């Protein structure tokens, strides 16, 4: 399916790759083009901003994947007008408290949060489906 838009899965580190590939698997089911990129809000903020600038005039949805302290989602959301979906990998360390860094964000930040790869892919697909009736029908069929 040819879509006017794609998803950029932005990982905080290479250790998020396996989790991010799961998101990609769900996006593939809908025929959605995606890119996997690595850039850390903590360690390589310039690279994060560079990726955002590269895609400023494109139809993209960002899915951010960052474990531990998730500054990536807030940074991306604060520097783009594109939709941002935070999908932090769950960790048993600290009883899963890492997720709070995705939920408690500064004012003016509008990223949404889901902790399941499938949920992140569906949310991104629904955003892209706003302009694509065929994708909308695919999502409806998938969710039956």
Helices, by number, come to: 6
What is the CATH top level name?
Alpha Beta
Order of helices and strands: EHEHEHEHEHH
SS elements, strand count: 5
- Percentage of residues in helical conformation: 25-40%
CATH topology: Rossmann fold
Gross CATH architecture: 3-Layer(aba) Sandwich
Q: Approximately what portion of the residues adopt beta-strand conformation?
A: 15-25%
Q: For the largest beta sheet, what order do the strands appear in spatially? A: 2-1-3-4-5
**How many domain regions?**
1
What is the gyration radius calculated from CA atoms? Answer: 14 Å
Describe the global form: globular
Classification by helices and strands: alpha/beta
Distance between the termini: 21 Å
Biggest sheet layout: 5 strands, parallel
Average of per-residue pLDDT values: 88
Q: Any low-confidence stretches, pLDDT <50, length ≥5?
A: none
């Amino acid at each position: 399916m040819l879509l006017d838009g794609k998803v950029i899965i932005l990982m905080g580190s290479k250790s998020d790759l396996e989790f991010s590939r799961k998101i990609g698997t769900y996006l593939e089911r809908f025929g959605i083009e995606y890119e996997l990129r690595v850039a850390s809000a903590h360690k390589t903020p310039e690279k994060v901003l560079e990726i955002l600038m590269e895609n400023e005039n494109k139809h993209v949805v960002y899915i951010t994947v960052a474990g531990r302290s998730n500054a990536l989602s807030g940074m991306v959301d604060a520097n783009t007008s594109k939709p941002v979906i935070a999908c932090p990998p769950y960790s048993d360390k600290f009883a899963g408290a890492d997720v709070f860094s995705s939920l408690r964000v500064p004012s003016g930040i509008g990223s949404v949060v889901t902790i399941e790869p499938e949920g992140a892919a569906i949310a991104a697909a629904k955003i892209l489906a706003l302009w694509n009736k065929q994708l909308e029908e695919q999502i409806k069929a998938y969710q039956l």
